[in-house]
Amino acid sequence: MDAIILQILNGLDKGAAYALIALGLTLIFGTLGVVNFAHGALFMIGAFCAITLQRLLGLSFEQVDPTQKDFLGNPLKVKVPYVESWFGHDLGSAIISWSVPLAILLAIPVMIIVGIAMERGLIKHFYKRTHAEQILVTFGLAIVLQEVVKYFFGPNPIQSPAPDAFSGSFDFGAMIGLHAGVIIYPYWRMVYFLFSLAVVAGVFAFLQFTTFGMVVRAGMNDRQTVGLLGINIDRRFTIVFAIAAIVAGVAGVMYAPILSPNFHMGMEFLVLSFVVVVVGGMGSLTGAVLAGFLLGILQSFASMNEVKSVIPGIDQVIIYLVAIVILLVRPRGLLGRAGVMEE
Amino acid sequence: MLGLSKKDTGFLLFVTFLTLATPVLLQPFPEGSALAQFNAGYPDLMQRFAIYGIFAIGFNLLFGLTGYLSFGHAAFLGVGSYSVVWMYKLLGYNVVPGLLLAIVVSGLFGLVIGYISLRRSGIYFSILTLAFAQMSYNLAYSVFTPLTNGETGLQVYSNDPQVLMGPNSPKSPNLFGLQMIDSIKVPVGDWVFTFNIGYYFTAIIAIAVFYLSMRIFRSPFGLVLRAIKSNRTRLNYAGINTKPYMLGVFVISGMYAGLAGGLLAAMDPLAGAERMQWTASGEVVLMTILGGAGTLMGPVLGAGFIKYFENIFSKINEDILHQWFAWLPPGANDFVTGLLKPFVGEGWQLTLGLLFVLVVVFLPGGIMEGLQRIGAGLRHRGGGNPTATAPAAETQPAE
């Protein structure tokens, strides 16, 4: 029992990342009909927004501190971040410590700009071209985005810690009345999971309960009719692209403390997220989210030692195996609509 | 000749000449001159041109003819490399058994992967092939470590059996005694030309498989493959079962990739799992598109272009840029250098990515289409005959 809960928990954070990227991918595919291979790069840009903010907040100047002396007895020069001198020591250091969640505020405008620029500048021209060409152009774009980030931040992973309040782990087992000391789970992963649930709920609520969302859903069903009704569906779809970019971006921001961002992290997640989209069903938002969590948890179960000793190497291939079986048995995916991309 | 039309024979002879003369043609700058760093006539790079040319030719048979975009061709490349190194370990350093095994094993791999993946088309086919390649890559790193030697990579150790090795056998990859690393350096004036056995070995194989791909392009088999690209449903209605054709070309394409992987190990007796990673699959896609998918010569040009870029463009650094723009006033020099710096050296992939996007957007036919347009434009201007453009585009030798 303990072990099962532990594995489910372990799968949640990765599953949450898959789910958020897959959600954006399938949103773009459902509305624009575009297979976006650059979506992983958006996730990566989000993570580097966290790094950028962390570095900006860390900017400091030297100040003579009269209370401290160095070994010669002279007043010691200490580095004081600008933020601390502006907001006072306590508030300033709190802001620095919370740089990752705060980076969401930076990431949202950045992702809107990047998303709209991508859609209007490039992807717009590929609506009517084949999926293969869409894959190719977005793949090229992903390389460009990666290399730009690599130029500014270097090739090595950069650490970005979670806020002090959420560093460390807690005993989840004891909380729900199981044996203490067995299910130890890091705070931040729990935060990530809850955060992803909130984002997913937000996107679904937006599509379900707003007029804009209604138009978008109608456009997903029948783009032509919506256009005939005098609604500028293209503009709305551009905004949908920006929303998908924001979802991927904030998913990346919050993932930075879990996996130190490097310039090619996006591609690794993209490959898996694509598999997730296929398993969930192309164009099905619920399917993408469910499949994301499902595959994340499956992967964590497959990496249990008990399972690995029975089927060696299963943890490395489980996701792909599931995808192959799903594609062959039920090509529309778990929750895909009949007839959508089912060839 | 050889079952080819007159024009094709001429084209093949032309390609053969280019390939065999590569060590001279790619060494245009005298030794010691400032431009000598752009010479590509050294064995390692030329071997890569030929090997990745083979890889891209094979990929193009699948993607260019049928339009099925495989994102998992690197799996075959890796399998080929492992096969060759295993033959080194078991039999000896002669490359022939290894290469034969590489072709057979990658063909079998292609049969299995193709049989399953080809049940779907479009993006699903791409993802299925990607899934298989990633599975192979992950397994090569984990469970199959006894076969692949995991992260260290497979290599020959002194306690390997090598049953066919005599006391006088060469201790490096060879073809019946001819060692791949041997080369003859011929100084001509300021120039030094390197004629390397490994290069000529790969080049002759490359010409042979190029000829094979030419025959496939011109065959009824190739015609069916093109028909699959333009309208598969209609072909089914016409009573042609497309499945065996697809599987056939998938296996052939896999064998090309396996051969290329085997040759990589024939030049350097080492095989690592990173050859199977999806980035390697992406690379061959880039090569084919950049050169021109569906053309005979395009993929080879694309492969050469990318490998040249990778090896030569990445060597340009800030100092070299400063030298180039030394004729500018100092301030402008610094400015231009700073502007160009992100695109060279470490950043060569940025240039490649940009170029790739531009090609897909503006020149879907790749380098070949660009050449054709230039050719058509020249003919148009020279002849002053506006109708000459359309037939000119058709009569290009490279399809």
Written description of the protein model:
The complex is a heterodimer of chains A (343) and B (399). Chain A is mainly α and 343 residues long. Chain A is built from 15 helices and four strands. Chain B contains 18 helices and six strands. Chain B has helices spanning 6-20, 22-25, 43-66, 74-90, 95-117, 122-141, 145-148, 197-218, 220-230, 232-237, 243-267, 278-291, 298-312, 318-324, 330-340, 348-362, 366-383, 389-394, and strands at residues 154-155, 174-175, 178-179, 183-188, 191-196, 270-271. Chain B is globular. The model of chain B is unreliable at 386-399 (pLDDT under 50). At the A-B interface, helix 6, helix 12 and helix 15 of A face helix 6, helix 12 and helix 16 of B.
| Head-to-tail CA distance between termini of chain B | 19 Å
Low-pLDDT residue spans of chain A: none
Rg measurement of chain B, Å: 22 Å
Strand arrangement across the biggest beta sheet of chain A: 1-2
Compact overview of the structure:
The complex is a heterodimer of chains A (343) and B (399). Chain A has 343 residues and is mainly α.
Give the key terms.
heterodimer; A: 343 residues; two-stranded antiparallel ribbon; two-stranded antiparallel sheet; B: 18 helices; globular; disordered C terminus
